[in-house]
Design goal:
heterodimer; A: about 325 residues; mainly alpha; ABC transporter involved in vitamin B12 uptake, BtuC; two-stranded antiparallel ribbon; globular; B: about 400 residues; alpha/beta; Rossmann fold; 2 domains; seven-stranded mixed beta sheet; five-stranded parallel beta sheet; 12 helices; 15 strands
Chain lengths: ~325, ~400
């Protein structure tokens, strides 16, 4: 029991930090630009593909740096030549634009790299076991992932709250004309924010690609959970995203480990449910079987009870 | 004057459009995922079917007609499949080929049965090359459905026969997808192990959502905590690869008894860690014959690349026996071909196969194989390949059936 609990906590933290990596860029873009970027998971996927391709040409460490930078460039281009023009037409147009973009990126990826998963295996340099917990090994790439995830949080927090550029960025969201009048390049700031957000998605993709499957449906596979995290954490709140990521990671991991059903709960309470009862099959579903829907349940609950999320400042 | 001329011209044009090609074309519909998450399997199957159809056409077709394969994308969705089936029938297809997803196969076999009851003389036949829920050839069987893949029970029988002889197996953990096929695998494993090796303990019986799990680490932690030496899984596609990947990451040391360990990406994902531990049961693998089959080699030449790793040997068997039945019936009429298919036997490079008359399940040799270093032909350029542990002859794979089908008079 102790063994399963310890390993589950570790797995939960790892998964939570992966979720945070995925969402940090999205949170940055939303909080600073007010744009809900549906193509965020697509940039994550591009990061995985770029790092795989570059890794074959120039090795893992250079790829770890260059792949996110490429994603940043793609992000900058999206903002400069797409989003900026759509921006004037309001939020619905922005959302539709990024929504369509996600499909375009998926098709492009399919055309370039094919429909099947590429063999994005962990590079030799980080393919070893970091330590053992109750006989289960903990792979080094997951350690690297945790480190990068924490570094992302620190970087974003410091950059936004403790630097002059962060101040300008925050001001540009609420008072663009004033900031512009003070001589700052507001459109440039937006390009920068979108590029950094995209680069963070790319960096997450480099590491996440080892854990998940690098294939054209990757964006689609992680897309929904990303939005669960930002809504539960509070749209645009960095700390909220971190807390929500960890919460969802740990909750889901523990749910898998629990083999009890509602039927067992009733039995402990002394309630007998007849086999012929219409809901018997529903009661008999083990929590472990339902684990992957736990985050979505949390999302629905959160929207009902506290629509602004854990740390959000405005309603979703 | 103008209208008079049109009266003469219209039938002439219609004649030119329809008369010539219609006489020499046998339309067969392929309904499977060609977009979305499962597209890679669907497209590979499409290529394989087309490959063998081209071979038949190059040899003159069947009874003088060339086969045209019409493709329909169903996104592995039963409702979508029914719409596509309707389209296929409207386009003139009298044969339907499908394989991905037993849920889809159930929908199609029911729709085909209804269609044939309502449209005598325009019957449609369903050629199932991969949907392996046993119910399709048992309680849900009908005259119009033929299955060319061994069902989940037959594969489990072969797998457990080999396990029963292996004294090292002490406990088993079952992890499967939460739908009809996954449940069928779990039920078959429990039943057959209890019969063949009552001393083996079942230490876990897990069902997880179909193609929804991204991180299998929590499941692996549970398998590890249960202290098992063997895992049985019917997982396919992403669920197979991600499960294996998570197991490798955690250093889980178990024997993997799988249905689809040979599906694309799995061997690459496990690599060296899978040597002697990853096992599969299949109707064919690259080292089943001493030399690579000529058609497999030709397929690899026509479709190079890792994503085209040859998988569907049963498609070869299916098209060869289909062409044989049509020749025997001297007609491409679905009813006559179906009658000819019943009980039909054919020699293949792996041994004799037979289409059972009582439930329309093809009996073919099955191989239980293990991933190994020392093989002649490797998979996915990994240097690793499949080595046969045991071969079960076609006759021995036969299981009792509850099928009672109504035959057309």
């Amino acid at each position: 029991m102790l063994e399963l609990a310890t390993v589950s906590i570790l797995n939960g933290v790892v998964y939570g930090l992966l979720l945070f990596m995925l969402t940090s860029g999205l949170t940055l873009i939303f909080s600073m630009m007010g744009v809900l970027n549906f193509a965020h998971a697509s940039l994550f996927m591009l990061g995985a593909y770029f790092s795989w391709q570059l890794g074959r040409w120039i090795g893992f460490w250079p790829a770890l740096v260059i792949a996110p930078l490429l994603c940043g460039l793609v992000g900058a281009a999206i903002e400069r030549y797409g989003l900026r023009h759509v921006h004037k037409r309001g939020h619905v147009a922005e959302i539709l634009f990024t929504f369509g973009l996600a499909y375009v990126i998926e098709e492009l990826v399919t055309m370039i790299w094919g429909r099947n998963a590429v063999a994005n295996s962990v590079p030799k340099v980080i393919d070893f076991s970091l330590f053992q917990v109750f006989g289960s090994s903990f792979p080094a790439y997951k350690g690297l992932m945790m480190a990068i995830s924490v570094a992302m949080f620190v970087f974003l927090y410091v950059a936004l709250k403790r630097t002059r550029i962060g101040l300008v960025i925050q001001a540009a969201l609420t008072h663009p004309h004033m900031v512009s009048a003070l001589g700052h390049d507001v459109p440039g700031v937006f390009v920068l924010v979108f590029a950094v957000g995209s680069a963070l998605a790319g960096l997450a993709g480099v590491i996440g690609g080892f854990m998940l499957l690098t294939q054209p449906t990757l964006a689609h596979a992680v897309g929904p959970i990303v939005f669960v995290v930002v809504v539960v954490g509070g749209l645009g709140s960095l700390a909220g995203a971190l807390i929500a990521s960890m919460l969802i990671g740990i909750l889901q991991t523990f749910a898998v480990a629990i083999d009890y059903s509602l039927l067992d709960l009733f039995r402990t309470l002394g309630i007998v449910v007849a086999r012929s009862s219409p809901l018997h099959d529903f009661y008999a579903v083990k929590l472990s079987t339902a684990a992957p829907i736990v985050p979505y349940l949390l999302l629905v609950l959160m929207l009902v009870v506290r629509p602004r999320g854990l740390m959000g400042r405005r309603d979703a | 004057m103008y209208s008079h001329a049109r009266k003469l011209v219209a039938p002439a044009i219609a004649g030119m459009l329809f008369a010539a090609p219609a006489a020499a074309e046998l339309k067969i519909a392929f309904i499977d995922p060609l977009s979305g998450g499962a597209a890679s399997t669907g497209i590979l199957a499409q290529k394989t079917h087309q490959f063998y159809i081209d071979a038949i056409n190059a040899a003159g077709g069947v009874n003088g007609e060339k086969i045209t394969l019409l493709s329909f994308d169903n996104k592995v969705n039963p409702q979508e499949s029914l719409i596509q089936l309707k389209k296929a029938i409207d386009d003139g297809a009298r044969y339907v080929v499908q394989g991905n997803g037993s849920s889809v196969a159930h929908a199609i076999t029911e729709a085909v049965l209804k269609h044939n009851e309502r449209n005598p003389g325009k019957e449609v036949v369903f050629l199932n090359y991969a949907a392996v829920d046993p119910a399709l050839t048992n309680e849900k069987c009908n005259f119009w459905h033929f299955r060319f893949d061994a069902d989940a029970d037959m594969k489990m029988a072969a797998m457990t026969d080999v396990m029963a002889k292996d004294g090292k197996v002490k406990s088993v953990y079952l992890i499967n997808q939460d739908y009809s096929f996954g449940k069928a695998v779990a039920a078959a494993a429990k039943g057959m192990l209890a019969e063949k090796r009552p001393d083996i303990r079942i230490v876990g019986d897990e069902l997880h959502p179909l193609q929804k799990v991204q991180d299998f680490s929590p499941y692996v932690a549970k398998i590890k905590a249960a202290g098992t030496d063997t895992v049985i899984t019917g997982n396919w596609s992403n669920d197979m690869v991600l499960l294996i990947k998570a197991g490798k990451d955690a250093g889980l040391k178990v024997a993997w008894e799988t249905y689809y360990g040979g599906s694309p990406g799995t061997v690459t994902a496990i690599g060296e860690a899978g040597v002697d531990t990853l096992k599969q049961v299949s109707e064919w693998h690259k080292n089943a014959t001493p030399e690579l089959d000529a058609t497999v080699a030709a397929f690899a030449k026509r479709y190079p690349g890792a994503e085209n790793e040859y998988t569907y040997w049963r498609a070869k068997t299916m098209w060869e026996i289909f062409a044989g039945a049509a020749r025997k019936a001297q007609s491409n009429d679905p009813v006559k071909v179906s009658r000819a298919l019943e009980g039909m036997k054919m020699q293949t490079p792996l041994g004799e196969v037979e289409m059972r008359a009582d439930n329309h399940q093809l009996l073919q040799p099955l191989y239980v194989s293990t991933l190994s270093r020392n093989v002649k032909y490797d998979v996915e350029n990994s240097g690793l390949g499949w080595k046969t542990d045991a071969k079960v002859e076609a006759r021995s794979t036969s299981l009792p059936t509850t099928c009672k089908m109504e035959r057309p008079k």
